[in-house]
Amino acid sequence: MDKYNLTVLNEFILVGITDRPDLKAPLFGILLIVYMVSVVGNLGLIILTKMDSRLHTPMYFFLRHLSFTDLGYSTAIGPKMLANFIVDQPTISYNCCAMQLTFFSIFISSEIFILSAMAYDRYVAICNPLLYTVIMSPKVCQVLVVIPYLYSLFLSLLTIIKIFIASFCGHVIRHFYCDGLPLISLICSNTHEIKLIILIFSAFSLVLSLLIVLVSYTLILIAIFRMNSAEGRHKAFSTCGSHLTVVVVFYGTLFFTYVHPKSSHSFDTDKMASVFYILVIPMLNPIVYSLRNKEVKNAVHRTWRLCLNILLKINCKIR
Fold first, then answer.
1. Is 15 helix (H, G, I), strand (E, B) or coil?
2. Beta partners for 92?
3. Which spans in 165-264 are helix H?
């Protein structure tokens, strides 16, 4: 009995993405490429929006933090998930499980509110363009990202401490990473309090952030339809297009995964949905903002030319 308890406290067994050996190699290859593209794309956007002075605006400030959170939660899960493809029995240590869930919770919660801040930023840009630089001052922008980070840190630590001070009666997590709900199902004691905390804070976060997005875009649509110029309407729509695409995909996947009735779809479907928002969405966000944004594309060209000039100068000096 003592030996079993020691195993429970030190290690969890994870249920992989698939139990079919013939699918492991193709899935590993595909997901590795997706993760690498995600890392390169998000790191590229972070560096680009920091280096290029023409992108030092509130919109790109928020975009930089969106890329940071994308990179954060995908990296909290991705490397360990990929490593588990090449082992016979996917496992994760007790401490690593706690760290994985902590960082994932912090970054995913922060992203929800950063998307809301971006919606508010677009509302101010379209509905109050003359006061945009006054309303969206650097201090306001910093507050709009610092508060989500602090709130997410508090919420994550609260739930993680509640979960990991409890005793576990099992050590098999029915997921490919340390997710909160599968972990709670392993707790021996009454989990009503933990579930209530998660439910209240999750509902508050989702409802508040989604409300900000909906109100912002409702006011934006009203302002756009009041514009007399067709060119002005097109410019306003194109300004919001990238963000709106990201919001729809992100919230749609979250609602499908966590709000959709569990009886209506299989466990495998849940895992595929989780893979989508953990790896695919962080890969898509830089692509969406790069392909649909002339400023980002121009910044990429300027940075590329700058790098080429530096390399040519170095080459000339070596010769």
1. coil
2. 12
3. 180-184, 192-225, 230-254
Note whether 108 and 148 are within 8 A (CB): no
- CA-to-CA distance for 183 and 41, rounded, in angstroms? 32
Please give the Cα distance from 267 to 181 (Å, whole number). Answer: 13
Give the pLDDT score at 8.
45
Which residue from 183, 147, 178 is spatially nearest to 165, judged by alpha carbons? 183
Global pTM exceeds 0.85: yes
pLDDT tens per residue across span 23-37: 888 999 999 999 999
The secondary element (H helix, E strand) that includes residue 79 is helix 58-83
Q: Is 184 exposed, middle or buried (0-12, 13-18, 19+ CB in 10 A)?
A: middle
- The sign of the CA dihedral 286, 288, 293, 298 is positive
The tens digit of pLDDT for each residue in 109-163 reads: 999 999 999 999 999 998 888 899 999 999 999 999 999 999 999 999 999 999 9
pLDDT bucket at 258, cuts 50 / 70 / 90:
low
Q: Is the pLDDT of residue 292 over 70?
A: no
The residue type found at 172 is V
Q: Measured in Å, how far apart are the chain's first and last C-alpha atoms? A: 72
Q: Report phi then psi at 14, rounded to 5.
A: -100, 145
> Residue 42: which residues within 8 A CB-CB, separation 6 or more?
67, 68, 70, 71, 282, 285, 286
- The amino acid that residue 34 corresponds to is V
- Work out whether the CA dihedral 249, 252, 255, 261 comes out positive or negative: negative
